[in-house]
From TrEMBL:
InterPro entries: NAD(P)-bd_dom_sf, SDR_fam. Signal peptide: none annotated. This is SDR family NAD(P)-dependent oxidoreductase. It comes from Haloplanus rubicundus.
Length: 241
């Protein structure tokens, strides 16, 4: 089946890798982020190489902007089948973080995740509020700080803990309706585009992460994994919880 996938929070690292993988699998891919020039460039690349892609410049912290972005996706590609929420942003600070910086982190993290989930899930459940057997997939990008706080990362830890809790709640709420909600713990740093892979690897491979995201989209509803823990340890350990 052809799916419409929204990747919210797209940069040259993981967001782009997920978009490329989903496009290669035949998805119509909508790219949501603030940087219009980058979105246009990536959408053109995907359109030339893989299929249909659409860049939608969006402030993910703004409820009206998110609503408008999803309406643009619906008008262009139809209702959303897959949402990947990949956005985050906070200074690496501890108690010295300013209150407005903390508020900004929460806005980009759990607030933006909530706004996008509301729009995407409304599409997945349809006008009658009930999903079909395979209503859709929502994937939240987590981090080491989703499961254990880190010194000097107060805002980032708070946002990632919050998103994990949201994902757990949504998985219980939406699973019976056929919506697969998953949370991916990225326990390590993601390899930047300009870094050559090491042997043994010292970074998580964004393309390998994207492949795991696609596995979540195509998982059997009878055995839906909720949490995937990815690390660049021996063998690139993967744990399904």
């Amino acid at each position: 089946m052809t799916r419409t996938a929204v990747v919210a929070g797209v940069g040259p690292g993981l967001g782009a890798a997920v978009a490329r993988r989903f496009a290669a699998e035949g998805c119509r891919v909508a790219l949501l982020a603030r940087s219009e020039p980058y979105l246009d460039s990536l959408a053109a690349e995907l359109g030339d190489a893989e299929g249909e892609a659409l860049g939608v410049p969006t402030d993910l912290t703004d409820a009206e902007a998110v609503e408008s972005a999803f309406e643009t996706v619906r008008e262009t590609f139809g209702p959303t089948d897959v949402l990947v929420y990949n956005a985050s942003g906070t200074p690496w600070k501890g108690l010295d973080i300013a209150v407005d910086e903390f508020d900004d982190a929460l806005a980009t993290g759990p607030r933006g995740a909530l706004l996008c989930a509301k729009e995407a899930v409304a599409d997945m459940l349809g006008s009658d509020g009930d999903g079909d057997d395979e209503a859709g997939t929502v994937v939240f990008t987590g981090a080491t700080t989703s499961v254990r706080g880190k010194e000097g990362a107060l805002g980032f830890s708070a946002t990632k803990f919050a998103i994990r809790g949201m994902a757990q709640s949504l998985a219980r709420e939406l699973g019976p309706e056929g919506v697969h909600v998953a949370h991916v713990v990225l326990d390590g740093s993601i390899r930047p585009p300009d870094v050559v892979p090491g042997d043994p690897p010292t970074h998580l491979d964004p393309d390998a992460i994207a492949a795991q995201y696609w596995d979540l989209v195509t998982a059997d509803l009878a055995t839906m994994p909720f949490e995937v823990h990815l690390t660049n340890g021996p063998g690139g350990a993967v744990e399904f919880v």
